[in-house]
Design brief:
Structural class: mainly alpha
Helix content: over 70%
Largest sheet: 2 strands, antiparallel
Distance between the termini: 104 Å
Radius of gyration: 32 Å
Order of helices and strands: HHHHHHHHHHHHEE
Number of helices: 12
Strand content: under 5%
Length: 274
């Protein structure tokens, strides 16, 4: 048999094998398509929620995002948007968590779980950590502009004021106490800086802001002392005397910071608003 004939036979055999393999591949894929379960909003949500419970936040985010993209108007998608807030939060995507919470609040202002969106917003800013240099040198965070603390405080205040029966209201209130003290400390730090610079009116105004906004914080005592001193420096003796009287009258209420005694002798929370 000539070489040409042998070569032709080998080529034909190779083509036949490739065609057979191709047919088998197509058949296998086609078979999978026939037996694959249809993707629904419910199935996507179940898969995403299963991943969330298993702490697979990356996988959960992908599933939830796919669900909201493919079935945006379903009940499952609405629930997925709530779960996404938490998944982003636990994944460490802080801005995505806040954006998701803001979107949910804007689009579902009367939803029964909108309090949760506000609470997670507060938690994200509450847990923002100091940067590496601040941790390394043990920086005094009371001297850092408390932008995130103020945002967190406002979000928690929304929970407490607008949703007082929320299961998150008590925890939000406790975190507000911590943030109140942190914010008051910063105002006092700024007021002290003004005093050192001789800007006595500015010092008195900043101290007064701490007193009015964060009543009950331990730093309020220092704020009253600064106000008294600042008014004395500029010759406003009547205001200085008034500040001193308030300081003396309320000295006992500065500790403990979490509670104060009402006129009837009962103990009440600082943020007890009803």
């Amino acid at each position: 048999m000539s070489r040409t004939v042998v070569r032709g036979a080998l080529v034909a055999l190779t083509v036949a094998c490739a065609a057979l393999a191709g047919c088998q591949t197509v058949h296998r894929v086609f078979g999978n398509k026939q037996t694959r379960k249809p993707v629904t909003a419910e199935s996507l949500y179940k898969d995403a929620h299963k991943r969330l419970l298993a702490y697979d936040y990356n996988g959960a985010v992908k599933e939830y995002e796919a669900l909201t993209a493919r079935f945006p108007f379903t009940n499952e998608a609405r629930q997925a948007r709530i779960d996404l807030i938490y998944a982003y939060y636990r994944k460490g995507e802080e801005e995505s968590a806040i954006d998701a919470a803001d979107t949910f609040i804007r689009e579902n202002p009367t939803h029964p779980r909108v309090d949760y969106a506000w609470y997670i917003k507060g938690m994200v800013d509450f847990e923002r950590n100091p940067n590496a240099l601040e941790r390394l040198f043990h920086a005094d965070l009371t001297k850092r502009p408390p932008t995130n603390a103020k945002k967190s405080f406002d979000a928690f205040r929304t929970v407490v004021e607008q949703y007082p029966k929320s299961i998150y209201a008590h925890d939000a209130r406790q975190r507000m106490i911590y943030l109140r003290n942190r914010l008051a400390d910063y105002d006092v730090h700024v007021a002290k800086y003004y005093m050192r610079r001789g800007a006595y009116i500015g010092a008195a105004q900043r101290a007064n802001h701490a007193i009015e906004e964060y009543d009950g914080a331990p730093a309020v005592q220092q704020a009253l002392e600064i106000m008294t001193n600042a008014y004395q420096k500029v010759g406003l003796n009547e205001r200085a005397d008034l500040s001193e009287k308030v300081l003396v009258a309320n000295r006992a209420s500065f500790s403990p910071p979490e509670t104060r005694v009402a006129s009837n002798g009962s103990s009440r929370h600082w943020w007890h608003i009803w």
